[in-house]
Amino acid sequence: GIQVEQSPPDLILQEGANSTLRCNFSDSVNNLQWFHQNPWGQLINLFYIPSGTKQNGRLSATTVATERYSLLYISSSQTTDSGVYFCAVARAGKSTFGDGTTLTVKP
Amino acid sequence: KAGVTQTPRYLIKTRGQQVTLSCSPISGHRSVSWYQQTPGQGLQFLFEYFSETQRNKGNFPGRFSGRQFSNSRSEMNVSTLELGDSALYLCASSFGTPEAFFGQGTRLTVV
């Protein structure tokens, strides 16, 4: 199956700092999503981005499908950005998640 | 528009028992997928249903089964529970594109 690697596994920032999270995948995919898991366990959709670049407020994402990676950018981080960020890819109807990046934003 | 609804939110069961979890997708969504999240294995795909048919399946034993009803609501059943089945079970629905929307999950504890 497809392998999904996220880096870094852990990231600690001061409030106001910028960060880049990376997701590498081992094969071509027809879907890629970024999620933020809240403290209660729900996965919150950030981006559906099989290719190209999207922006939503302080967050933006870029997927370069031909090179099999995606980047999630968080600018001017806030304490509420803390949590686990997951990348998920899908191929032939089966989804595979990375192990996540745990982000801690300190005030 | 209501989101994906999973019930119950929390559940405690004894080893050997069986359990049924429910998922109501977003109105109009016909695809429902189930995932298991554990600290050791991360998020793993269980299966996907579309129009009452299982369309895809992950690598889980036959104790894990599911079904989908004509109104797209889905249930997942785990028989002969083991301690290792303790996990957060997440359901997602989608419509058209593969973009998935998740519910809040059911946290199952097996004692």
Written overview of the protein:
The complex is a heterodimer of chains A (107) and B (111). Chain A has no helices and eleven strands. Chain A is mainly β and 107 residues long. Chain A is globular, with a radius of gyration of 13 Å. Chain B has 111 residues and is an all-beta fold. In chain B, 0% of the residues lie in helices and 54% in strands. In chain B, strands 2, 4, 5, 6, 9, 10 and 11 form a seven-stranded mixed sheet that branches. In chain B, strands 1-3-8-7 form a four-stranded antiparallel sheet, with no helix packed on it. In chain B, 35% of the residues are buried. The interface between A and B is medium-sized, with 23 and 24 residues.
Structural features:
heterodimer; A: 107 residues; mainly beta; B: 111 residues; seven-stranded mixed beta sheet; four-stranded antiparallel beta sheet; 54% strand; globular
Q: Averaged pLDDT of chain A, please? A: 95
Span between termini of chain B: 37 Å
Q: Which residues of chain A form runs of ≥5 with pLDDT under 50?
A: none
* Element-level helix/strand string of chain A: EEEEEEEEEEE
Report the β-strand fraction of chain A as a percent range: over 45%
Task: Classify the helix fraction of chain A into a percent range.
Answer: under 10%
The chain pair forming the largest interface, with residue counts per chain, is: A-B, 23 and 24 residues
Question: Could you give the count of β-strands of chain B?
Answer: 11
Q: What's the SSE pattern of chain B?
A: EEEEEEEEEEE
Shape descriptor of chain B reads globular
Number of helices of chain A: 0
Q: Based on CA inertia axes, which overall geometry of chain A fits?
A: globular
Main β-sheet of chain A, in a few words? 6 strands, mixed
Q: Low-confidence spans of chain B: pLDDT under 50, at least 5 residues?
A: none
- Class based on secondary structure composition and strand pairing of chain A: mainly beta
Indicate the percent of residues in helices of chain B. under 10%
Strand content of chain B: over 45%
Quaternary class: heterodimer
Radius of gyration of chain B: 13 Å
